[in-house]
Amino acid sequence: MSKRWLTLTWPLLLAGWLAAAPPAGAADTPVDSAEQAAQDDLYQAALKALDEGRTSEATALLGRLIKQDPLHAGAWMELAITECDLGNAAEAERLFSEIEQRFNPPPGIQDVIATHRAGGCLRHDDARPASWLMSVGRGYDSNVNQGASNPNFSIGGIPGELAPEFRAHPDHYSLLTGSYVRPLTTEGTLAIVQFSDRRNDHDHDQDTASVLLGLEHAWNLGRWRARATGAFGNVTLDGKLYQRQEALQLRAAPPITLPDKLDLAAIGNFSHVTYPTRTSYDGNTAELGAVLNYHGETDQGVLTVSKLHDNGGQDRPGGDRRGWFASAQWYALLRSGLYGEAGLTHQHWDGSRIYSPGLIDVVRHQDTSNARVAVQWYFRPNVSLHLEGRLVHNRENISLFEYNSRALQLSLRWDNF
């Protein structure tokens, strides 16, 4: 199983276990609602401490919760895995054995326990172990070059028809992706590496590769929870450097009380993008918005809404841009070892001046919608099949830039191998 900061597999698997049945031997004893609410708050605080890398605080919170509620299976499992990740093999084994005796865990949870036992609970440089994810896949894309959906156009009032190379090119492709997350401290600092390499069967001038290097740190600002991430990335097109990007994100969760299962945070992003072969398209983008998270028993949802401003160079066609972004994501445990995902995003841009005076005498308006659905099946503890479908619909008032695409991709994934 992947670690909790890399995928959603473990939280959903645990949620499915907790929702399925009470622990072995549990009595139907009424629980005071105020006491239950306090225990739920303590558990959520421990999970957030784990997510942010504050393991010392998390283990203390989990220990307190187990003393208050000895039948809290989630607290026992989180504490056992954390002790194992910290290299405390003897304590982790004691907790795993206690879980097996108290709760009679289902096969999926038994696989998690077996995976951690097999790893030997080794500690790495006084930090939690690194996490890996590798994926190889094959796919089909109806428009690998983002070719225009309308072959007819007009420039300077003169109608024309696009040449075939500017229309949609369908193609099959092969894809290799990977990510590596290594905690640098036990209190919330992570190093992140991601890469991707996509090769088309025929349209090789649209082959892309990317690499991203990042550093993330989480901390508390009084009662606020904060997380900062810095990243640097390069993208190549047809083997040549196409785009370079530097980005900084700050995420802060205010100390407010929300309905159960909800969590709210403010986000601020700033990125600088350069195009080595098309310098007039360089720009700086600022984003300010909010993220609402929902944590259900067997599903999770994320809703994001933000305002955007893109400040380009003086020679960039259309000038500066203003817009907004919205995203809704959903993840669920469908059955043991089977997970579902769905997402919908929409981005809107408005230009600040005429796109190209004398040729394209309009101010550009762009709306891009992206829908995706996916299922992931773990047929072994660390190996899964991932099937994903995507639809992209880019609507514009300049027909040259309008395009649609459909893609279907099947991948084989390994995590923490």
CATH names the topology of the largest domain as Porin
What kind of oligomer do you see?
single chain
The total count of helices amounts to 6
CATH C-level class of the largest domain? Mainly Beta
Strands of the widest sheet, in order across it, are 1-4-5-6-7-8-9-10-11-12-13-14-15-16
Whole-number mean pLDDT = 85
CATH structural architecture of the largest domain: Beta Barrel
| Envelope shape | elongated
Q: Which residues sit in consecutive blocks of at least 5 with pLDDT less than 50?
A: 1-8, 24-30
Order of helices and strands: HHHHHHEEEEEEEEEEEEEEEE
The residue fraction in helices comes out at: 10-25%
Main sheet record? 14 strands, antiparallel, barrel
Number of strands: 16
The CA-CA distance between the termini, in Å, is: 9 Å
**Could you say how many structural domains there are in total?**
2
Helix-and-strand structural type? alpha+beta
DSSP strand content: over 45%
Using only C-alpha atoms, the radius of gyration works out to: 24 Å
